[in-house]
Amino acid sequence: MPRATLSGPRFAIGVVCLLAAIDLLTCLTAPSARAANPDAIWHVVHDQCVTDMAANHRPAPCDAVDLAGGYAVLKDLHGATQLLLIPTDRITGIEAPQILAPGAKNYWQDAWAARPIFERRAGRTVPREDVALAINSKYGRSQNQLHIHIDCVKQGVRIALDAEQHLIGPNWADLNMDLAGHRFRARRLEAADLSGANLFQLLAQDPQARADMGGETLVVVGASFRGGKPGFVLLSDQANPLLGDIGHGEDLLDPTCGVLGRP
After folding, report:
1. What's the mean pLDDT in 223-250?
2. Own/partner pairs for 66-72, CB < 8 Å, 24+ apart?
């Protein structure tokens, strides 16, 4: 029997198969795989960002890691500016009991404080009224690790909220118009930042929300109220998958940052 050699049809077929396997591995590690794997961002943050920060004082592939604060900031797959604020502890999502516990970590303030990273990606200073934070319901998310989206608010949403601002009070109430095709509840919060309020707990003050936190989406839009008082408009929506509402508050964000216009 002739000795096998590294040439001929069998070798060519083997090379093709090897290249196909490499392509498959590349696909599994590409950004699209992150969307398909519900634990992808957890593994990126826990296995890569935190490990790199602890060993080398670099947050790669995250934009930032605060080991003492217990969170990381990671570029989202969508758009040029959108970021994700992700706990370095294992927390499933908006339904997790840890976020309502006394003394719970205030991830919303961490997300708001990450605006300088967002502005570097935007290439300019972004007014607070143009910035929005959002967390999707358990029906509207692709990842089973709590993450807060940071991006520009849609221009139409900002215009609508500005028009209705005088009707938005300190308690949860239905808006008079739809946003992204859904009727959100809204309340105002007068504060320069979010350090003094646990927004998950404020949401849970609404009996409807507390009964099914997993079905809730929460969006926070920066605002300036009458007299120049800084604050926020909080928006919540209860998902109803049977009616096509999956609680996707991220719909109020704009990864193109059209609200900023041209640089």
Report:
1. 96
2. 66/110, 69/110, 70/105, 71/105, 71/107, 71/110, 72/45
pLDDT of amino acid 263: 52
Q: What are phi and psi of 59, to 5 degrees?
A: -90, 5
Backbone angles phi, psi at 215, to 5 degrees: -85, 0
Rounded distance between C-alpha atoms, residue 150 and residue 39, angstroms: 20
pLDDT tens-digit map of 107-162: 999 999 999 999 999 999 999 999 999 999 999 999 999 999 999 999 999 999 99
- Enter the tokens of residue 92: 């499933």
Give the integer Cα–Cα distance in Å for 13 and 67: 48
Q: Are the C-beta atoms of residues 141 and 93 closer than 8 Å to each other? A: yes
What DSSP designation does 92 have?
A: -
Please give the model's pTM, rounded to 2 decimal places.
0.86
Q: How many Å apart are CA 141 and CA 217, to the nearest integer?
A: 10
DSSP 136-204: --TTS-S-SS--EEEEEEPHHHHHHHHHHGGG--SS-EE-SS-BTTB--EEEEEE-SSSTT--HHHHHH
3-state secondary structure of 18: helix
Question: What is the rounded distance in angstroms from the CA atom of residue 36 to the CA atom of residue 21?
Answer: 19
Instruction: Give dist(CA 156, CA 141) in Å, integer.
Output: 23
Cα–Cα distance measured from residue 236 to residue 172, given in angstroms and rounded to the nearest whole number: 9
For 57-72, write each residue's pLDDT tens digit: 999 999 999 999 999 9
